[in-house]
Amino acid sequence: MLIKVAYNGLCGSDVHEFYEGPVAATIDPHPLTGCSVPCVLGHEFSGTVVEVGAGLDDLAIGSVVAVEPIETCGVCPRCAAGRRHLCRRIAFHGYNREGGGLSELTVVRRDMVHVLPAELSAVHGALVEPMAVARRAVRRTRVERGDLVVVHGAGPIGLGAILALRADGVEVVAVDPSSERRSAARALGAREAVDPSDTDIVSMVRDLTDGIGAAGAIDAAGASAAFAAAVRSTRPDGTVVVVAHHHEPLPLRSGSLIFGEVTVTGSSIYDTNDFAWVIKAMQSGAYPLDGWITTIELDRVVEDGFEPLRAHSVNKVLVRLDQRTA
């Protein structure tokens, strides 16, 4: 399917790729797609279907879509077990396939396309992918309505976790050193949004929970101190989910696990069910767009996109490519 891109979101992974890469992009031909650097970045995008391949007659030209940007082998044990998002040969559009979401036009497979309901905009569509990442992390906390979860890091994935948790009726405490990001967290429904530099997170969480600790925590910060606080402030049998990439070894002591019986696990991207859940939740109004999204033009992608994202001075940045669809 040929997609005319409307919006493409910039991701923290793109920032690392731009300044430090290649990281996810491959120097040698990718084993599944044969692609290698140079590549066009962009894996969080929406657009309009302008052409379809032979035999594809289930999607109308002009449909506005969100793209699930992964291609998998379909035959390995992980794919066969329904865990295609963990495929060892996974390829990402924007790193390992021809033409990413920062292209004006790009070609994707039919199984990568999710048609947006009429009441959702192309802006919503460009947010589905990162919000699905956050939704999966929320699911892996195993928390229930009325529980309290601490979200460490209020960047785009952390904010997405807050929105998904609030949609499930879960109380949220957000932790981030940035005042801008704390303000966004409060606006999107966090019960508390605190600065870890002037707050004892563990004591605060225990005070809020009568000493028992939070039902779960999400590490969307990628900082050692955040991870340590997440483990120490989570109740017995609670779950700490790591969704951020850490560049240093995790500060994990065996006593924290033995005497606290806290589960520590990771969360990798999403599956198709996470995409579908986010789109349905967007329809219900669970993902407001005001106050946390910045829209820029393609010729300002470095100055207004990568640089402020690297400095943690903005939240979600969308690049507008198709003025008409936008």
Textual characterization of the structure:
There is one protein chain. The relative contact order is 0.16. This protein is globular. Helix 7 (224-232) links the parallel strand 11 and strand 12 (234-242). It is of the alpha/beta class and 326 residues long. It folds into 2 domains: 2-132 and 270-320, Medium-chain alcohol dehydrogenases, catalytic domain (Quinone Oxidoreductase, Chain A, domain 1); 141-266, Rossmann fold. It is built from 10 helices and 15 strands. It starts with a strand and ends in a 6-residue tail after the last strand. The strands form 3 sheets. Strands 1, 2, 3, 6, 7, 14 and 15 form a 7-stranded mixed sheet that branches. The protein has a 6-stranded parallel sheet with strand order 10-9-8-11-12-13, sandwiched between helices. The longest helix is centred in the middle third of the chain and has 18 residues, at 122-139. Helix 3 crosses helix 9 (272-283).
Count of strand segments: 15
| Uncertain stretches of 5 or more adjacent residues | none
What is CATH's topology name of the largest domain? Quinone Oxidoreductase, Chain A, domain 1
Based on the coordinates given, report the CATH architecture of the largest domain: Alpha-Beta Complex
Structural class label: alpha/beta
Order of helices and strands: EHEEEHEEEHEHEHEHEHEHEHEHE
- Give average pLDDT, whole number: 95
CATH H level of the largest domain: which superfamily?
A: Medium-chain alcohol dehydrogenases, catalytic domain
- How many discrete structural domains? 2
The gyration radius over C-alpha positions equals 20 Å
Contiguous helical run count: 10
Specify the CATH class of the largest domain.
Alpha Beta
* Share of helical residues: 25-40%
| Main beta sheet strand tally, sense and closure | 7 strands, mixed
Q: What gross morphology would you assign?
A: globular
- What is the CA-CA span between the terminal residues? 20 Å
Strand content: 15-25%
